[in-house]
Structure formats: structure tokens, C-alpha cells
Amino acid sequence: MTWAWRRLRVLFSTQFALMAEYRAEVIIWMLSGTLSLVMMLVWMAQAAAAPGGQVRGYSPAEFATYFLATWLVSQLMVVWVAHELDPAIRQGQLSPWLLRPLDPFWSYFIGHVAERFVRLPALLALVALFAWLAGAQFTREWWVYPAVVGLAALGFTVRFLWEYLIGLLAFWTDSSTSFQELVWLLYAALGGMFAPLAFYPEWVQRVAVWTPFPYMLGLPAQLLSGKATAEQAGQGAAVLLGWGVIFVLLRLWVWRAGLRRYGAVGA
Asked: How far apart are CA 233 and CA 21, in angstroms?
């Protein structure tokens, strides 16, 4: 345990220092991912123009709360590992990593976690500013906030695992990141980035509940909006844990199969 903790601490310190060097770029990345904020303005306008000032039970302020919460959680789940792993495998840059006494997975994972700590202060400041401008009102139930943090941590881990799996496809394809765009579309649509899942046709909702997507973005956003219960949070955590186990096993299998195929100089 001491061996693992010491390496984890050193790895986090180095990755945090590296990410802190790019803090200005991190803020630019954050501001470029504004799809939820655009959808917030669209739905707020729709609700304001609708009879009774609501669309399916959502007032403009409730749309502001939901989409701002979606944006907040989505910023904690930004993952770019496939774009780093793909060229590392295809161009042979993976070879030096294989000489280290640590699976490259952990370096990438800790790097992403460290980036969250660099991103968080500016992210919270922007959320406070946008909430004031849009009139968003987050719930005052204290238990919601640790539940959202837990779901966000699980959701980030699940997303990192599937993005890592996509990157590993570079062992067999010329551009594994092409698959990422398709998966991102499902993540955004079923996650509730375009609209709350309850706005979709019933058959889409029945399919979506078997995927991890609604529990990564939509459920935390519903919790922060005061529209979800503790029981639903527990069910969402159980589903994300199940998908996490599946992706961990898949990652190990694909990694070992890919290494047997890897043929770069020095491998």
C-alpha cells in the first residue's frame, strides 16, 4: 500500500504541475464546450414564449438550472485520452512506456484527474456567474451535493475507460478516434445535453436506461435541479458501477490482445 501510495502521490504531483502550465488553455477548452449553454438559451426562450410560461413542467429558471448543471458535470467528464493513445500506438511512441514498471493507463488517468483540479476554480466561478445571469436556482438539499460528486466521479471513470478502449483500437485501425464521434453523439443525446431525457420518445427512454449515459449527465443535473430522488441516485450509481466493471475487464482484454499485435521498433 505504501509503495502504491508513494507512486500515486508522485504521479499526481507531476501531472498537476504539467496541467497547471496549461491553465490558460484549460479555460479556453472549457469555454469552447458550450453546447449545454446554447441549449439552455434555446429552451429558456421556448418556455418563456409557451402558454403558462412552461414546457413540460419546466419554467425558464428550471431550464437554466438543468442545463447549467449539465454543463458543470460535463466539464468534469472531459476526456481526451483517445487522441493521445491513437498516435502513441500507431507511431510507436508507446514503446518507451512499456519499459516503465507501471501500466500507461494510470499515467493517463491521473493526468486527467489532475486536470480537474486545475479546471475546478474557474469552472465554479463561471457557474456562479452564469447562474446569476440566467436566474438558475440549485437545490438546497445538502445530500444532493455529495451524491452528485459521487455520480460525477463514477461517470468520469466510466467515460475514461470507454475512451481508453477507443484509443486501444489503434492496434487494429488507422484512426481509432473516428469511433469517438459516434460514441460522443450517443453520450450527448442520451445524457440529456440537448434536452432532458423525459422529452424523448418513450422507446428511446426505455433503451437509454440500459446505457450509462443518462446517469452521467442527466441524473446529476436532475438532482441539482431538485427533480430526482436519492433512490434514483442510488440506482444510477449501481448502473455506472456495473458498466465500470464491464469496461475494466474489456480494457484488460483489449490491452493484452493489442500488445500481442504491437510491432513498433523496440517493442
From this structure: 36
